[in-house]
Amino acid sequence: MAESVRQMSALMRKEFLLEWRQRYALNGMLLYIVGAVFVCYLSFNARRGQLTPIVWNTLFWIILLFTAINAIAKSFVQERVGRQLYYYTLASPQQIILSKILYNTVLMLALALLGFSVYAFVLGNPVDDIPLYILTLILGAIGFAASLTLVSGIASKAENPATLMAVLSFPIILPLLLMLLKISKNALDGLDRSVSWKEIGTVLAIDAIVLTLSWLLFPFLWRS
Fold first, then answer.
1. pTM above the 0.85 mark?
2. pLDDT band, residue 38 (cuts 50/70/90)
């Protein structure tokens, strides 16, 4: 168990080092968030009254979704065949997929919190229940990271990974996104938290199912 944790820590450290060396990718994601928020600000600045809380919430999750796709799509696509073969001799497939999911979760959570801060600062913050909204961001980061990492691994085996990833991720991300929108809307309106327990349970179930599928199916994908 200790050896497995040590190997996963080394794999996550490798992901952080690669991201730090290729800072243009991280800078590009940050620029995308700030640029998208600024475009929303310019679009609704002349007519502030039209930016209702529902529109505010929907726009934010659309920005977050495309940020997640841009951030996580490269998880396996950027790995060369020789490097993958080297990983195959060092660690188990489960350790590789879990380390990538954990890294993408940390990255996605950082981007989500940063995006929420910038978005709320520029366009105002109509959220009544901030802790519940932050919980929604955490659940969304885990769900996006787990789903898109697995789909990235599948798409990397095809000739056109970008198209295949868009096709495969849609049926997985859509129900997750609908639940996240409903929970965040409840937090926006300041409703009692008991109203959101069912949706939170559904999101947790989706996250658990995707993580279990990643654990069970990725070894077969990795050996191919």
1. no
2. confident
